[in-house]
Design brief:
Blueprint (H helix, E strand, L loop, with lengths): L5 H10 L28 H20 L10 E5 L1 H12 L6 E5 L15 E2 L2 E2 L4 H7 L13 E5 L13 H8 L14 H12 L9
Parallel strand pairs: 1-2, 2-5
Antiparallel strand pairs: 3-4
Helix pairs in contact: 1-6
């Protein structure tokens, strides 16, 4: 909100008739009370998933007039949030019909980085076996539940971060991934802004 102006982007898209009116819920994306210091702790994604599903969603549905079907719900995020959005959304297609992962830090997935796969700048490889374990029920049949899968890569000063596995994930799910390649030194927030501007107009167009 402060730096990415997500609310401004959505307000403009809605005002221009390019996106459906929607409620965006912006959460603190950590599964531990000490925030960033606990970001990479074991079980963080699982804890955050429980928070979203069992705390955030019930509160939103109690306080606001929102749809309660997968066709009326989307989950998306940038970097760490992109890893979380894919982890939560693709494991809970009964809850979310739209999943957007903007340059997701997939090395955060449980068991994603095998021993010896880290380089000077950090993890560079995700275990293929780990992807299958992270999404055990994700296959071509999931297409009947999923309205949209939007996954992008950021090619900036530190490319990689396991994102070469995006096409493999898409093939596993039986759907083509949309790969958006930015300029070499494109700021992360510019990636967020462009992805949100492209992603939001595709949401809820056929929701019932």
């Amino acid at each position: 909100m402060e730096n990415g102006a997500a609310h401004v982007i959505l307000d403009n898209l809605i005002a221009q008739g390019k996106a459906k009116p929607m409620l965006m819920v912006y959460t603190l994306g950590y599964g531990y009370p000490n925030g960033p210091a606990g970001a990479m702790r074991e079980g963080m994604l699982e804890n955050f998933s429980k928070i979203v599903l069992h705390e955030v969603l019930p509160i939103v549905e109690q306080r606001y007039h929102v749809g309660k079907t997968p066709a009326m719900r989307a989950i998306a995020g940038l970097s760490m949030g992109g890893a979380e959005a894919a982890f939560i959304g693709l494991n809970h297609l009964e809850t979310f019909g739209y999943v957007g992962s903007f340059s997701g830090a997939y090395v955060m997935w449980p068991g994603a980085v095998p021993p010896g796969a880290s380089g000077p700048a950090g993890p560079r490889q995700i275990s293929t076996e780990a992807v299958a374990k992270v999404f055990p029920a994700l296959d071509a049949k999931a297409n009947t539940a999923l309205k949209l899968l939007w996954m992008t890569c950021w090619h900036g000063r530190q490319p990689g971060r396991g994102q070469s596995h995006l096409p493999r994930m898409a093939r596993r799910q039986g759907r083509e991934a949309r790969l958006h390649r930015g300029s070499r030194h494109r700021p992360r927030l510019a990636v967020l802004a462009q992805n949100l501007a492209d992603f939001a107009p595709l949401l809820f167009q056929s929701a019932r």
